[in-house]
Structure prediction request, 585 residues.
Amino acid sequence: MQVMLNAIVSASVILMVGVGFALVFRTARFFHFAHGIFFTIGAYLAFLFKAILGLPLALSALLAAGGAACLGALVELAVYRPLRTKRASPLVLLLASLGVYVVLQNAVSLAFGDDTKSIRSGTVSEGFEVLGARITPIQATTVCASVVLVGVLVCLMRGTRFGKAMRAVADDPELARISGIASDRVLLLTVAAASALAGVAGVLVALDVDMTPTMGMNALMLSVVAVVVGGGRTITGVMLGAILLGFAQHLAAWTLGARWQEATALLVLLAFLLVKPHGFLGATAAKASV
Amino acid sequence: MEYVLHILVLIGIYVVLSVSLNLVAGYTGLISIAHAAFYGVGAYVAALMALNWHVPFWLCLLCAIALTGVLGAVVGIPSLRIRDDYFVVATFAVQVIAVSIMNNWTDLTGGPMGLPGIPQPEILGWRISSHVDYLVLVGLLGALALWVSRRLVQSPFGRALKTIREDEVLAQAVGKNVAAFKVLVFVVSAGMAAVAGVVYAYYISFIDPTSFTVMESIFIISIVIIGGAGSLWGPVVGAVVLVTLPELLRFMGLPSGVAANLRQILYGGALVAFMMWRPQGLLGKCAFERKSAKA
Prediction:
């Protein structure tokens, strides 16, 4: 039971980061490796506002999400948009995003130091019992936040003009532009929203298990796995991927020991890439024929 | 003087690494973020054999090349089914798994504590101990790597690789066994990276997983791309520039922690800048444009 609960908590974190990654992947069509850094930046901004400036936690978390969104937008404006106007291939964008990740992670290290920072307050609460398993208030909040935020996102995507525009750009950027959708603005907002989500996830994880400058790499990795396993195109896919991955990880931790969690996650990824690449191949072929 | 020699040896090691990555990334068009894994596996195999069984240097070297070559084949196989950015993700997975094993299989690899005390190598009675000796060794190996790379690229095999990069379907249509070529080039490239790893392990005489992480892989990619993917001398230029430039930071009197971060910011920034303004690198020809992307 505890294993299942832990798996659900992990899955909600992966979902929050993964949905953002999938959104960018779907609308902008490249692997946004720098996405993971906004997870880290969210956590560290919360640290800045709460521990250094002494603001209340809720406000700090909001500001952190906003900050992550702004930075994400900045990266899009400064790097991705110019590249896109030059019609750079997805591979070039991917390499550039690796560079962005390296720069930002080291900027965080420079600003805050490499040691573990904490924004946990007071004593560790024992949590409450749900069906014979323990869950801390933070973990419960994480699950709720994930469900609510992703829910809101799905509604936005389905119900609003902006969501429609986003899907149009995802389907065919040229056609979207011809029919009067400001593709660039849509992409900007997509990256900003994705970064904000990652930032929130970062704050919540930091509240649960503290932060280090490299925490984003791990989150990024897991969300990549979830997105690829889920097929990469739909939010439902990411959800399935996140849940599958959460369970695989915690089952591995339970049977093999926690140190093999990471390797298990990536083995799942490799297995999927090898055994079931068909969906992905189909997706790439469709992209190339546009 | 010692310091200058040390930098030169490091440049040599990175020349071997980037020449090897250039074979896959530059000539065949398969970007791999698993190169630090090959580098690390080579280093670990040699170190373990030297420490546990006191095997002579050349035998360690051969075994490291062979084993890493096998790993290279394993990594090359996914490239038959998935392409471009998906392939990058697959190599990323291999890279992280490799580091995870180095970190967690403590009985074998010493885990985060690493493997200290790797003995000095001896080749045909030549005991390699000073910086000068290592520089000669690395120089020879670097030249060998360049020679192999040049021979390969100019051979029919190399032409087939470039065809695969430009148009895979065409390569297949003219009867090239694309699958075999891809796996083979990965084996060669991984074996070459292993050579760099072996030399590194003996040279530093201590290895731990932090030298072989994703960041290291990204660094090697940066060298190849900034130098110029798909050109013979590009990786050499890239290695000289990217290893030397950050050393200048040392003379600005920064604390070493800050310098390490700045160094990474520098090469990350350089990677972004080159992607934006000169994706083909300093000397390069291939700019990773999407194949047959015309509407």
